[in-house]
Write a structure and sequence with these properties.
The chain is built from 1 helix and 6 strands. It is 4% helix and 47% strand. A hairpin with a 2-residue loop joins strand 2 and strand 3. Strands 1, 2, 3, 4, 5 and 6 form a 6-stranded antiparallel β-sheet that branches.
């Protein structure tokens, strides 16, 4: 899966010792450029942190996997990124936005002002 947007938060690096050795985890929050923006927190793990460095306000496209797992009767979901592409200024996701309806005339009903019988209503 993929999602595009702007990095609005870089959360603190977490690390620890597991049964397979040391691990590192970095969370980022991305905001989409849709009409109704969504915020998505995703994660980079171990060597991916160094491979895909990101900073605030960068426009990126993130490829990720979603995984849920159960622990002590509760379910936890992780959005784990496996690829990050930095978008150039000309290829931001805003070009794919849906735009609200806009009439070409000056009134809100889409009726041109020079129409004949504009006062003739069907009811």
């Amino acid at each position: 899966m993929e999602i595009s947007g702007k990095i609005i938060a870089v959360l603190p690096l977490q690390s620890g010792q597991g049964k397979n050795g040391l691990w590192r985890s970095q969370d980022y929050v991305l905001e989409t450029a849709d009409q109704y923006p969504k915020k998505v927190c995703f994660n980079l793990f171990n060597d991916k942190i160094d491979k895909f460095p990101m900073a605030l306000n960068e426009m990126v496209t993130v490829s990720f996997d979603i995984e849920s797992r159960e622990y002590s009767g509760r379910w936890y979901t992780t959005i784990r990124a496996w690829n990050v592409k930095k978008n150039t200024e000309g290829s931001t996701p805003e070009g794919n936005q849906a735009t609200p309806f806009q009439s070409s005339s000056n009134n809100s009903f889409g009726i041109s002002e020079d129409s004949e019988n504009i006062t003739d209503l069907p009811f």
